[in-house]
Amino acid sequence: TARVGVLALQGDVREHVTLLERLGAEVVRVRRPEEFASVGGLVIPGGESSVIDKLTRMFGLAEPIRAAIREGMPMFGTCAGLIMLADRLVDAIDGQQTFGGLDVTVRRNAFGRQVDSFEGPVVVPAFGGEPVHAAFIRGPVVETVGPDATVLASLDDGTVVAVEQGNLLGISFHPEISGETRFHRRFLARVAART
Ligand code: GLN
């Protein structure tokens, strides 16, 4: 079985751990560099990206995570996790940094006020079959997609909400709270392919 980490400094950690375990993965809650060193992939949960940024730097995890991204470790970021994986952030809270890795520009809290949280079906062509039931909770929008990243899903109005680049996967919404397992399985397959 794949041994994977969930970055567990802030955010909806438990939902990801539960889902990954249900899919048969061995899951480590990652709070320290030693824990990170023991995993073959990392999920970065939703939460508040500026806090995740501060805490990962404070706990000495930011640099190891950046190094692992450069080395091709599979990572999957949801919502705040997508922000952390974006190369460019247009509205960073003073000094906020990201790990980078996805050649995209992301805007935080970018769905209008009325719709900053909503649920609905999202078609993911790579999955075929049923659309994904997606829960958006003050999620970020991918404003521009550079040549190195691939769009996995967008809304009817063209808003990009899921992107991929090599072993990195980032999405604006929360599949872990709506019972959607295909993104997590895609992530686990990448981890398995490397070990
Ligand atoms: N608005 C949050 C941020 O900027 C993301 C929201 C979420 O992860 N549900 O980090």
TrEMBL record:
It comes from Microbacterium commune. The active site is at C79 (nucleophile), H174 (charge relay system), E176 (charge relay system). In the presence of PdxS, forms a dodecamer of heterodimers. Only shows activity in the heterodimer. Belongs to the glutaminase PdxT/SNO family. It catalyses: aldehydo-D-ribose 5-phosphate + D-glyceraldehyde 3-phosphate + L-glutamine = pyridoxal 5'-phosphate + L-glutamate + phosphate + 3 H2O + H(+); L-glutamine + H2O = L-glutamate + NH4(+). InterPro entries: Class_I_gatase-like, PdxT/SNO, PdxT/SNO_CS. L-glutamine binds at G47, E48, S49, R108, I137, R138. Its EC number is 4.3.3.6, 3.5.1.2. This is Pyridoxal 5'-phosphate synthase subunit PdxT. Keywords: Glutamine amidotransferase, Hydrolase, Lyase, Pyridoxal phosphate. NCBIfam families: PLP_synth_Pdx2. Catalyzes the hydrolysis of glutamine to glutamate and ammonia as part of the biosynthesis of pyridoxal 5'-phosphate. The resulting ammonia molecule is channeled to the active site of PdxS. Pathway: Cofactor biosynthesis; pyridoxal 5'-phosphate biosynthesis. Coiled coil: none annotated. SUPFAM superfamilies: Class I glutamine amidotransferase-like. PROSITE patterns: GATASE_COBBQ (PS51274), GATASE_TYPE_1 (PS51273), PDXT_SNO_1 (PS01236), PDXT_SNO_2 (PS51130).
